Amino acid sequence: MTALDTRPARMTGTPAEPGLYKWRWPALAVILAGSVMELLDATVTNVAGPTMRAELGGGTSLIQWLGAAYTLAMTAGLLTGGRLGDIVGRKRMFLIGVTGFTAGSLLCALAFSPETIIAARIVQGLFGAAMIPQGMGMMKEMFPPKELQTAFGLFGPVMGLSAVGGPILAGVLTSIDWRLIFLINLPVGLGAALAALRFLPASRPVRGVRLDLPGAVLASIGTVLIVFPLVQGGELGWPAWTFGMMVAAAAVFAIFAAYERRRAGRGGDPLVAPSLFAKRAFVSGMATGTIYFAAFAGFLLVIGLYTQLGLGYSPLKAALTGVPSSLGMIAGMGVAQATRRHGRKVLLAGAVVMALGVAGVIAVASPGVSPWQLAPVLALAGLGSGLIMSPYFSIVMAAVEPAETGSASGTLTALQQVGGALGVALLGSVYFGTASVEITLCVAAGMIAATFLVGLMLPRQAREEEAASPAH
């Protein structure tokens, strides 16, 4: 097959010669559609949560669990989902994921109690974990090096806009009926599944690769042990067992790391490729992303709670109040793309700008604050978010070799979800525990400052790592 051949490349679980897949741009659109659907549902309950609680019942922690149950299930399954893509084929796993996610959305819309909505959110999260990791793997295989940066450049902005646009869509739909925020996934999910059958490249399983089931169990247990007490602890008054669970989580993750190294040393197939941890861009990117996404997800939750529970806004008014943040993020991503040659500096500048925006919200917060008074500072926070989000994935994934893509995409996305779950749990607990948006946003500002400090460890440019990668 020559470089001019436009037939679909045969994906065999190992890297195909780049640039040969004719339908790579339509395939990218399908991958992005799946990501948009997943990310919208990760954020819609920030706005719809109070209304859902009023109808379904439950304590204050239900609002946190609407997001945390979804994120927890997603995180627990991501590493396994990424590996299953290598074992049974990425296209097949994407189809399983998008179909199951759509079914889970229907279950959410039919929920009649706190228990049923949380169970349905878990179903969504588990199938989302099967769908999302396949995207980055297929992108690395479908695109030649020159186009791959553009493809990843689109991935970050779409994710960011979805995360911010979700609450706006939720506000509009919740003003009619909150169940619509899940029912809208049915036509989108079915359309994505049909398009996936047509445009996604077929792939064969990697021969000889087996699922690291003990590693998957350990990773899932560790995630539950750290997220559950953060979400539930505040409502229960922080009993001793909540701190014991968090200590146990650290021990479980230590056991997980030791087990993965031993499995790799014996020639097995670890859930997480140990070679990834020898790459500076990837390791520093994991830390930076975990902290940033915690701050980002927590900030969105706090603004949704503050505008509705603190200021008495309707869901629609609360959602429209967030529009300046969305516009700011769009502007930030545009600036980031225009200044991408500056690499890490763009991301660091974004952390500074986002922190200034959060500080601005603290300064104007008062019982009678209007959406117009919040608009400039929310726009500033959104601008900073866009500057961080846009270059993040291209910098981090540039170091990853094709054979590591499944493990890398699952790991990176899992840490993103862990960060989001931690941010929702931590800032939600602070908000409900203190009833003070100022104190809660001070914590968020501290997390953004930590993003800046850890971000200093990222390589200055993605090309520094690209040059060292056989894939390029």
TrEMBL record:
Matches recorded under CDD domains: MFS_MMR_MDR_like
Keyword Glycosyltransferase: no
Assigned keywords, A-Z: Membrane, Transmembrane, Transmembrane helix
Membrane topology: Multi-pass membrane protein
Domain Major facilitator superfamily (MFS) profile, residue spans: 27-463
Family annotation (Pfam families): MFS_1
Top-rank lineage group of the source organism: Bacteria
Any one Gene Ontology cellular component term annotated for this protein: plasma membrane
Main location: membrane
Subcellular location: Cell membrane
MF terms in GO: transmembrane transporter activity
InterPro entries: MFS, MFS_dom, MFS_trans_sf
Chain ranges passing through the membrane: 62-81, 93-112, 118-139, 151-174, 180-201, 213-232, 238-259, 280-306, 318-339, 346-365, 377-400, 412-432, 438-458
PANTHER family: ACTINORHODIN TRANSPORTER-RELATED (PTHR42718:SF39), MAJOR FACILITATOR SUPERFAMILY MULTIDRUG TRANSPORTER MFSC (PTHR42718)
Protein name: MFS transporter
